[in-house]
Structures are given as structure tokens and as C-alpha cells.
Amino acid sequence: MADTVIEMVVLTGAGVSKESGINTFRDAEGEWTKYRIEDVASPEAFASNPGIVHSFYNARRAHLLEAEVQPNAAHRALVQLEEVLGDRFMLITQNVDDLHERAGSRRVIHMHGELLKARCTHCGAVTDVTVDLGQGESCPTCAQENTLRPHIVWFGEMPLQMEEIFQALGRCSHFIAIGTSGTVYPAALFVEHASKSGATTVELNLEKSENARSFGESIYGPATTVVPQFVESYLRRRV
Ligand code: BV8
């Protein structure tokens, strides 16, 4: 990827999965209206009360695996972009669900980790998980017991693949943010980084995000409406 031209970087947030039935964080019924971040999404919380943290992620993992939770038209429109642009396209998501992959996206950077993966705090191995954690299970790689944590980036932890992300932001010609409130860092800084490198920046969201003024263009509406429309018009103009 080092010298590939990056035509477009897309950053998605919880809003892209909302119409698939997955809660966002800061909307009316969002996750952070029911839990305090410091109680369920920080290494300190996990150290002091792993049970509460495990049950927070176990509930979200079980919900993600329910039959009615399926990718939506916004996820599918991004697959179409990847199919046409190939490795000139980079999809970064703040989401920990696997809906982009289930829609058909083949290269997804999960900068905040993945709900369906666990990480061993003893050997560091990352393995698939679909069941509840915190039930005395052992690591499939080193066999140590009670060492698995959700493979999630908590507040105060370094997001994943940041070098690759900042390299792409420094040379992309389009940066598109979809369904994110622009409140969590460093993801909320990506738009400025991209525009400093001369990229065209567009925000697709239900409403104005916290960093809306950093975007060259904003298109508001539900993701399943505005994302397919954006992709269709981008691909039509591109030929
Ligand atoms: C770090 C995993 C440093 C958990 C998450 C400045 C610089 C750097 C850091 C900081 C900084 N200032 C503050 C910080 C600290 C902190 C931070 O940002 N705090 C915030 C609260 C101010 N950042 C960190 O701690 C990060 N780490 O910086 O490490 C470091 C340095 C060296 C060495 C070690 C460490 C780590 C942040 C990652 C935390 N983990 N997720 C989990 O998922 O359980 S973040 C969490 O917020 C989720 O991942 C979520 O994806 C993310 C962002 O939220 P959104 O996706 O935007 O969701 P939200 O609900 O907010 O918004 C949804 C949007 O969708 C809304 O705008 C809504 O209108 C829209 N919408 C709704 N419906 C629809 C829709 N849009 C379209 N269609 C619809 N239908």
C-alpha cells in the first residue's frame, strides 16, 4: 500500500449501522446514555470490574449475532465503491461490528477493534469469539485461563493501524466521513489531516457533527439514503 494512490478514504461511525438495528453512542437511546464510558470502556474499568465490562460487550456481541441484524444499503454502497476503486480505496471504521465485512467489504480497518474478536492479556493472541467472555474460558493459543479480554480499543488506549491511516490521509484526494458525531479522537482529527493534504472532504450524516465546519461539503439524511446516492453520483462523475 506504501506507494498506491489513495483516491478515497472513508471513515464510518455508529450511524452507518444504526438502520441495521445497532445502537449508536450519543443519540437519544445511545449506549453512553445507559452506561458511563469510564465504567465499561476503559482499561481501568476492566482491571477493577471485569465482570461489568464483559457483560457490556457480551450483550452487544449477542445482539450483533441476532438474525435481524444485517448489513444495510449504506454498507452495500461502500462495497460497490471498493469494487470499482480497488486498492485506491480505504475503508476505516470506528465501529466494532462486522457489518461492513458481511456486506462484502474485503479490506476494513477496524481502528477501535472488533466485537467478534478476543485478545489474550497473557500471550497477546487475537482470536475469533462469538460466545460470552468472562466465564472462565482459556486462551485458544496459550491455554491460560481467564486471560481473554474483548479486542476493543478502550478510552486511553491507542487505536489500531494509525500509521497506515495517517499515511493514507496524507495523500488521499477524497475523505468522506459517514455516520460519526466527530467527538472521539484521534478519529475526529482525520478530516483536518486530509484537507491539509488537499483532499476534498465530505460529511454524510443524519445531522451536523461536532466537526462539521472542517468539511468542504455536508450532506444530511439517513445513511441508507444519502450513502447510495453519494456513491452513485461519485461513480457517474468519475467515468
Ligand atoms: C487515545 C470502542 C491516546 C469502545 C471507542 C485528543 C487526542 C487524542 C485523544 C483524545 C483527545 N481528546 C480526548 C481524548 C481521549 C479520548 C477521546 O476522544 N475522548 C472523547 C470522549 C473526548 N480518545 C481516546 O481515548 C482514544 N485513545 O487517544 O489514546 C494514546 C496515546 C499514546 C498511547 C496510548 C494512548 C481511543 C478512542 C477509542 C475509544 N473506543 N470504541 C466500544 O465501541 O465499546 S470510541 C466510541 O466512539 C465508539 O467506537 C464509536 O465508534 C466512537 C465514535 O462514536 P461515533 O461512531 O461517532 O458514534 P456516535 O454515537 O457518537 O455518533 C453517531 C452519529 O451517527 C451521530 O452523529 C448521529 O447523528 C449519526 N446517525 C444516527 N443515525 C444515523 C446517523 N447517521 C446516518 N444515518 C443514520 N441513520
Structural description of this entry:
With 239 residues, the chain is α/β, with parallel strands linked by helices. The protein is built from 9 helices and 9 strands. The protein has helices at 15-18, 37-40, 43-48, 50-64, 73-85, 99-103, 162-169, 190-196, 223-238, and strands at residues 6-12, 89-93, 108-110, 113-120, 126-128, 148-152, 172-178, 200-205, 217-220. The chain has a 6-stranded parallel sheet with strand order 3-2-1-7-8-9, with helices on both faces. Strands 5-4-6 form a 3-stranded antiparallel sheet. Helix 5 packs parallel to helix 9 (223-238). The chain is globular, with a radius of gyration of 18 Å. Ligand BV8 binds next to helix 1.
Give descriptors for this structure:
3-stranded antiparallel β-sheet; 239 residues; binds ligand BV8; 9 strands; globular; alpha/beta
Helical residues, percent: 25-40%
What is the string of helix and strand elements? EHHHHHEHEEEEHEHEEH
Portion in strands? 15-25%
Strand order of the largest sheet: 3-2-1-7-8-9
Mean pLDDT: 95
In this entry the ligands are:
ligand BV8
Distance between the termini: 24 Å
Q: What Rg do the Cα atoms give?
A: 18 Å
Low-confidence stretches: none
Inertia-based shape: globular
Number of helices: 9
Main beta sheet, described? 6 strands, parallel
**How many strands?**
9
The secondary-structure class comes to alpha/beta
